[in-house]
């Protein structure tokens, strides 16, 4: 779409003036090829964990599904949300005054107006453009499959990131992975969805956005008769420095009408042990997922022998209860730290290894593995299996 480059430019302009511009922090991901953009934009580097496996030695990690109780999300059941899809998306140079909001609502064919916060964060120096929204109020502005998925809105309420599906692909992001915002907090990717908001890489909650210093009340969404809302009228009210993008361009050029894009929503937990190890490793900058996979293989055969052991160790990563008490984590956002759940145990292992400086590599990594099980033979075995995984998935 011809308006996209200028829209992204103004998002970055707002970010530069009013939003997060922190200095570089800890690196959780490696940068690669591409970011959300258009044919006119320069290729942008891709965010991804340390390695991208393709094939697995036996057992096939990408075919092994972790077993645990399902995540419980509020909002199941009840009538569906009646969606009011945005026809126009605009970003103003500053907070949109209340009077201007009223005047936007009076434009021909406009039936509904929403104003939300917006800004950009950086992960390893790469910008992500985000909207900060109230889950209850913004739900109707998303496609029906997204609005009907309670896990999406549970994730936002918990302060997690809902990434646009295209951004997930282009960044190489992983469901359930934790990404370090440069100079800011760590964000868990709890869900991905086709949001239909060009130039927007994801959603976070209003509260989280304001803690990050996002520009308040600068992004405007307009709903009304498809193909009829005047782009010129919106820009006139918001000012010359605003950027306006029509989201219903196909309806404005019927001869070029394209089939609607497939809407997809992905929520919950990683679908395989392979994805789980990769996601968990992002919690510890510098730690390869292959080390976690090797420990999972040695300790329980990836959840096939969860104990208890003769020493009293429990779960797929064989934690002693006392150790789990200090280092266990709620890896899937279900409100519990479950030693038996691989979705908690594998991130817990990453947390424990990181506390012992595994992310520094070399001898620090070997020593961290030794703390996991006080045997140098164990360390050598884990490193050997990790090396085999690295070669198999290279």
Percent strand: 15-25%
Anisotropy-based shape: elongated
The stretches of 5 or more residues where confidence is low (pLDDT under 50) are 1-44, 48-57, 71-78
User: What is the assembly state of the chains in this entry?
Assistant: single chain
Order of helices and strands: HEEEHEEHHHEHEEEHEHEHEHHHHHH
Structural class: alpha+beta
pLDDT averaged residue by residue: 80
Instruction: Characterize the largest beta sheet: strand count, sense, and whether it forms a barrel.
Output: 10 strands, mixed
Rg, rounded, reads: 23 Å
First-last Cα distance: 37 Å
Give the number of DSSP strands.
12
List the total number of helices.
15
- Estimate the helix proportion, in percent: 25-40%
Give a verbal description of the structure.
The protein has 394 residues and is an alpha+beta fold. It contains 15 helices and twelve strands. The protein has helices at residues 4-18, 98-105, 135-138, 144-147, 150-157, 165-171, 206-211, 231-238, 249-252, 273-281, 289-300, 321-327, 342-355, 362-372, 376-392; strands spanning 30-31, 47-48, 88-91, 110-123, 126-133, 161-164, 178-180, 186-193, 202-205, 215-224, 243-246, 265-267. The strands form two sheets. Strands 3, 4, 5, 6, 7, 8, 9, 10, 11 and 12 form a ten-stranded mixed sheet that branches. It has a two-stranded antiparallel ribbon with strand order 1-2. β7 (178-180) and β8 (186-193) form a beta hairpin. The longest helix is centred in the last third of the chain and has 17 residues, at 376-392.
């Amino acid at each position: 779409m011809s308006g996209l480059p200028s829209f992204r430019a103004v998002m970055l302009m707002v970010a530069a003036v009013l939003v997060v511009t922190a200095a570089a922090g800890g690196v959780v991901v490696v940068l690669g090829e591409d970011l959300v953009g258009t044919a006119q934009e320069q290729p942008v580097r891709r965010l991804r964990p340390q390695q991208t496996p393709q094939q697995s030695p036996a057992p096939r990690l990408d075919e092994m599904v972790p077993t645990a109780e399902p995540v419980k999300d509020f909002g199941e059941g009840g009538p569906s949300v009646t969606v009011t899809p945005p026809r126009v998306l605009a970003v103003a140079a500053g907070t949109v005054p209340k009077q201007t909001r009223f005047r936007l609502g009076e434009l021909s064919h406009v039936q509904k107006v929403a104003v939300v916060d917006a800004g950009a964060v950086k992960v390893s120096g790469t910008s992500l453009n985000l909207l900060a929204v109230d889950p209850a109020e913004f739900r109707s502005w998303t496609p029906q499959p997204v609005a009907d998925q309670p896990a999406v809105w549970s994730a936002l309420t918990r302060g997690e990131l809902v990434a646009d599906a295209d951004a997930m692909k282009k960044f190489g992001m992983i469901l359930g992975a934790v990404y370090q915002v440069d100079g800011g907090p760590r964000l868990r990717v709890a869900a991905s969805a086709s949001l239909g908001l060009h130039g927007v890489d994801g959603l976070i909650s209003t509260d989280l956005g304001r803690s990050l210093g996002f520009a308040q009340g600068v992004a405007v969404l307009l709903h009304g008769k498809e193909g009829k809302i005047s782009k010129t009228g919106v820009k006139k009210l918001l000012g010359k420095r605003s950027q306006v993008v029509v989201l219903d361009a196909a309806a404005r050029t019927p001869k070029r009408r394209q089939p609607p894009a497939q809407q997809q929503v992905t929520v919950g937990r990683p679908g395989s042990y392979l994805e789980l190890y990769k996601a968990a490793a992002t919690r510890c900058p510098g730690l390869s997922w292959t080390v976690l996979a090797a420990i999972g293989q040695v300790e329980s055969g990836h959840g096939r022998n969860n104990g208890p052991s003769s020493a009293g160790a429990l779960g797929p990563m064989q934690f002693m209860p006392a150790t789990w008490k200090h280092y266990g984590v709620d890896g899937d956002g279900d409100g519990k730290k479950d030693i038996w759940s691989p979705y908690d145990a594998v991130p817990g292992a990453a947390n424990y290894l990181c506390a012992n400086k595994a992310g520094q590599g070399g001898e620090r990594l070997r020593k961290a593995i030794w703390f996991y099980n006080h045997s140098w033979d164990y360390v050598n075995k884990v490193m050997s299996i990790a090396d085999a995984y690295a070669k198999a998935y290279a």
